[in-house]
Model the fold of this input.
Amino acid sequence: MSNDVDQIVYKLLDAHRTKNPIDFIRNDYTLDEQTAYEVQKHFVQKKCELYDQEISGYKISMTSPKTQELASTNEPAYGTLTTNSLVKNSSTIDIVNLFDPLVEPELMFILTDDLSIGAAEDEILAKSKIAAGLEIPDSRYKDWFPNFSLADLLCDNGVTGRVVVSEPVNPPSFKDLEEIRMELNHNGEMIGEGKSDNVLGNPTSSVAWLTKKLAVRHISLKKGMVISSGTFISPLRLEKGTYKATYSTIGNVQVTIE
Done:
């Protein structure tokens, strides 16, 4: 591990431990994408060691042109979920345990078998169940959204916070997965609606992108992993109250923020 990578991992871990946000990494370091993902890898490894966690899946960010534009990139990015990232449906989260969170309605792929490296859409659907989900992105940077760069996001584990997951169901067809409609409510008031084709055209294609991206690092997705496939709408600031996302043909998920 290079000295720069080591220093950045220490800064992020310290911010995580002390709950004191830090300045963007790009202010002090110039990192290419490969090195930024290397920072993420070591950050997650150290975090798992320190807090007795395990890798439980991945989250995919920037799956629409609008969100990619924020980080001046033309493809998505990923972060790594650990055991404490996952939250059961209808749970309550204390907002003081978060930094500067957002909320994103996303479909979750729950793997029922190991995927081959670089698995395509047909294999992914054959080995997955689908769940309604809400992702709560969160970052260790000061005033991070929408001011982050790609390197900042990748180093900070793709701004992984919490992922709320409902009970999984058998997946619809690939074509039907393009047609799912979502409505997001906060305290009973609708605050957003979207369609699944906003996620790289199809959420399954988003997971296929991830399998190919991880293949470069010789990583495959394993049975039991949860994949948060990308947001149906632009991220919204998380506030106290109850959020409920309803997905046609899939079901609903909710979380209460106190």
User: Anything to note?
Assistant: The longest helix spans residues 33-51. Helices lie at 3-18, 33-51, 65-70, 121-126, 150-155, 203-215.
